[in-house]
Design brief:
By secondary structure, this protein is mainly beta. Helices cover 12% and strands 44% of the residues.
Length: 540
């Protein structure tokens, strides 16, 4: 009996103990709570950062309207929510990163983020960050997503976020889409068949970021004043074409990419490197790019089996900086770079060997500082007669030689041309069309222009930049102009327009007629009235 009582008491203690333990567990796993911040009112905190310090993962920090001069670091998984994106302002006071996010499972909504060295930076977050309804504006660099693994880039950022008033396009797991509208920032993550066209981007960490994406194209974009104009991370078969990358730190940055084509771009005045490629990037092709006035024109770090041809590298500090082997670099112009090629980094004793010509008679590269002569010909340059190839090799270092340096600048880039009149899709109220255009060519100069109407025969107009067609019928027409440079490269452009010589029945005719008739009736009325007054005064 006594034993039974004892075991009953022990059981009771055990149950009480378990209950206490359960309640303490529940206290640790407390409900997520909301902390309030207001710069001038009754709230938990007056600083956003103080609220984040107090918060636990899963909590919400709710920020009332106001201007917060802070550099906010979001290093725990919280929701940071502004009262209203126009009136809830985080201001970097011209320095630092205004909002710096270092972890995933973070939501940031309804803020204006302005006036910092960097607006928002997502930095190796390794998890989902959701951004909604944020107005990122007037920062030296507005938006920047930095990371290494795919998880660092898998975010949910829709077009309700803007950079300097233009929507942010952050595509994740998308296929067969085109971005051709006004954009403030573009990222394409783990996607295929994406086309980015005709955008002007500036002042971001990257103007355009492609990561883990394949079979896509970036064409006719202009990126300036960014850290990276175009950043390609672990992509395959991406094309960057006919784009202008200027005044960035890096024009194009290529990290571990395969089968990229970089063609026909103008890459100028970038403060570090025009095109930087690294980390075993392979089988990439660079052609017909103009790379000028950068600190370094192009740099290959530990990248193999790439082809660089038909490019012009001019007026860079270093033309080509190469710490890589087994690349082919031929039929390019190296013009007045302070150091044409930097190949010896003195890091390891292993020789770095690249191929600097395309054999004979195709040739090597044009070097503005080549001092050799051209009296001989043949694969060994020992036959009588010149052949446009220097008789002695151009030596870069002991392991890198151009065996067939070209004696003249190679022009492989087509002229530039644009039609000034008529404008594309315009309506002309005349049967005579005096077409005009402008054109230019950097390497060899314009040889002549040709023009044609409605796909008729081409007319050679020599170097004139106007030509008149007469007696055009009403209806749609096309004019095409072709520019041909002295090396035979051509560029052709086309405009479509409508001729309408019958204004009598054109739109607006009825309104004009009504107005004219009303004016005539009024004048007649006044005249008759005046006549009547005169008559009556005469009769008196
Ligand atoms: Ca306030
Ligand atoms: Ca020769
Ligand atoms: Ca040319």
């Amino acid at each position: 009996m006594e034993r039974k009582v004892t075991s009953g008491i022990m059981l009771a203690f055990l149950i009480i103990g378990m209950l206490m333990l359960a309640s303490s567990i529940q206290r640790v796993k407390s409900e997520p709570r909301t902390w309030t911040v207001d710069d001038d009112g009754q709230a938990d905190f007056s600083s956003i950062q103080d609220a984040i310090k107090a918060a636990s993962p899963g909590d919400t920090v709710h920020v009332k309207a106001g201007t917060y001069f802070e550099n906010v670091v979001v290093n725990i998984a919280i929701s940071l929510v502004g009262e209203n994106k126009r009136t809830t302002i985080i201001d970097g006071n011209t320095t630092g990163t205004v909002v710096y996010v270092t972890v995933g499972n973070v939501t940031i909504r309804n803020f204006t983020i302005r006036n910092g060295a960097i607006g928002i930076q997502l930095y190796f977050t390794l998890g989902l960050v959701t951004l909604k309804e944020n107005n990122i504006t007037n920062n030296k660099l507005n938006f920047w997503v930095e990371g290494h693994d795919q998880a660092d880039f898998m975010h949910q950022i829709d077009t309700s976020n803007t950079v300097d008033g233009k929507p942010v396009y952050y595509l994740v797991n998308k296929h067969n889409e085109e971005i051709a509208n006004e954009a403030g920032y573009v990222a394409v993550i783990n996607s295929t068949n994406i086309s980015v066209k005709g955008l002007n981007l500036m002042r971001n960490g990257q103007g355009i970021l492609f990561a883990f994406s394949d079979n896509s194209a970036i064409e006719n974009v202009n990126v300036k004043n960014s850290t990276y104009g175009v950043f390609l991370r672990r992509c395959n078969k991406v094309l960057v074409k006919n784009s202008v990358l200027e005044n960035n730190n890096y024009g194009i940055y290529i990290y571990k990419n395969r089968n990229t084509t970089i063609a026909g771009n103008v890459i100028v005045n970038n403060t570090l490197t025009g095109i930087f490629m690294e980390d075993y990037s392979k089988h990439n092709l660079f052609e017909e790019n103009t790379i000028s006035s950068n600190k370094v024109g192009i740099e290959f770090m530990t990248s193999v089996e790439n082809v660089f041809r038909h490019n012009t590298l001019s007026k860079n500090g270093y033309g080509f900086s190469i710490y890589s082997s087994d690349n082919r670099i031929y039929l390019n112009n190296f013009i007045n770079n302070t150091v044409q090629v930097k190949a010896d980094f003195g890091l390891f004793t292993t020789a770095r060997v690249n191929i600097w010509d395309d054999g004979y008679p195709s040739g090597g590269n044009y070097w503005s500082d080549y001092t050799g002569v051209d009296d001989k010909s043949g694969p060994n340059q020992d036959q009588a007669g010149s052949d446009g190839i220097g008789d002695a090799p151009y030596t870069i270092d002991a392991n890198n030689k151009d065996r067939y340096p070209l004696m003249t600048i190679l022009d492989v880039i087509a002229p530039r041309i644009s039609i000034i009149f008529p404008l594309n899709r315009s309506e002309i109220k005349s049967s005579t069309i005096a077409a005009s255009w402008i054109g230019s060519d950097e390497a060899s100069g314009i040889s002549h222009y040709e023009i044609r109407l409605d796909s008729g025969s081409w007319i050679n107009v020599e170097t004139n930049t106007t030509y008149a067609f007469i007696g055009l019928n009403d209806g749609s027409h096309t004019i095409e102009v072709k520019a041909i440079d002295n090396a035979g490269n051509t560029k052709q452009i086309k405009v479509s327009f409508t001729v309408n010589t019958s204004p009598l029945f054109g739109p607006g005719y009825m309104e004009e007629a009504v107005v004219t008739a009303t004016i005539i009736i009024l004048i007649l009325g006044v005249a008759l009235y005046l006549l009547k007054i005169r008559k009556s005064s005469f009769n008196q």
